[in-house]
């Protein structure tokens, strides 16, 4: 799909999503009137960090989702404002219902439960689950984790997958992906 047609499709999805729960108006490039939470801003809820979709580079939030929403904001002739919020409020739709943001961009897997709470754009990335271990570790698969602790990001499809497929492992929840990854 071309960048322009993807932008048009996403703009249409955003138009549908933001008109129900907002307070100030702007006009999209196609002439449709759109209501936004804050005048002159397309407010995006996300949960940092989740590379390559959204993460901090210095003091700036960057990433694929950020660039994509910037295109939509440009079409609306507004600036994107990013709100870092817990993932739970995004996936349940609470943040949108509370007018905390106009849309959410959080590299989220589309599930039937989430579709009851949110209107999704067309999928633009196919994700898989993976087991990350320290180099040289004796673990090659989830089967090797019986009796061990397995870190998962809470409220994600990764957590659901681990609970279903890591028999005998004890899952330990972390609020975000960054807390799961080793530093240094």
Q: What layout of secondary structure does this protein have?
A:
Elements: H1 3-18, E1 24-27, E2 33-36, E3 41-46, E4 55-57, E5 60-62, H2 64-76, E6 79-84, H3 87-91, H4 94-97, E7 103-104, H5 112-117, E8 149-153, H6 157-165, E9 170-174, H7 177-180
Parallel strand pairs: 3-6, 3-7, 8-9
Antiparallel strand pairs: 1-2, 4-5
Helix pairs in contact: 1-2
Note the main attributes of this structure:
184 residues, D-Maltodextrin-Binding Protein, domain 2, two-stranded antiparallel ribbon, alpha/beta, 9 strands, 3-stranded parallel beta sheet
Give a verbal description of the structure.
- The chain is of the alpha/beta class and 184 residues long.
- It has two domains: 3-117, D-Maltodextrin-Binding Protein, domain 2 (3-Layer(aba) Sandwich), CATH 3.40.190.10; 129-184, D-Maltodextrin-Binding Protein, domain 2 (3-Layer(aba) Sandwich), CATH 3.40.190.10.
- The chain contains seven helices and nine strands.
- The chain has helices spanning 3-18, 64-76, 87-91, 94-97, 112-117, 157-165, 177-180; strands at 24-27, 33-36, 41-46, 55-57, 60-62, 79-84, 103-104, 149-153, 170-174.
- The strands form four sheets. It has a three-stranded parallel beta sheet.
- Helix 1 (3-18) packs across helix 2 (64-76).
- The longest helix has 16 residues, at 3-18.
- Residues 1-9 and 15-23 have low confidence and may be disordered.
């Amino acid at each position: 799909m071309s960048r322009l047609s993807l932008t048009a499709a996403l703009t249409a999805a955003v138009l549908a999503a933001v008109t129900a729960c907002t307070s100030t108006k702007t006009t999209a490039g196609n002439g449709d009137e759109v209501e936004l939470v804050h005048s002159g801003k397309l407010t995006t809820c996300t949960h940092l960090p989740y590379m390559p979709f959204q993460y901090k580079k210095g003091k700036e939030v960057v990433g694929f989702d950020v660039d994509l929403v910037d295109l939509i904001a440009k079409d609306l002739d507004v600036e994107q404002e990013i709100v870092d919020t817990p993932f739970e409020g995004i996936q349940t739709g609470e943040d949108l219902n509370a007018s905390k943001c106009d849309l959410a961009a959080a590299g989220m897997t589309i599930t039937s439960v989430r579709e009851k709470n949110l209107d999704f754009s067309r999928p633009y990335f196919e994700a898989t689950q993976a087991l990350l271990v320290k180099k040289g570790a004796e673990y090659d698969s989830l089967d090797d984790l019986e009796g061990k602790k397995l870190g998962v990001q809470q409220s994600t499809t990764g957590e659901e997958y681990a609970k279903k497929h890591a028999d005998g492992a004890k899952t330990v929840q972390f609020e975000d992906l960054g807390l799961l990854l080793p530093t240094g």
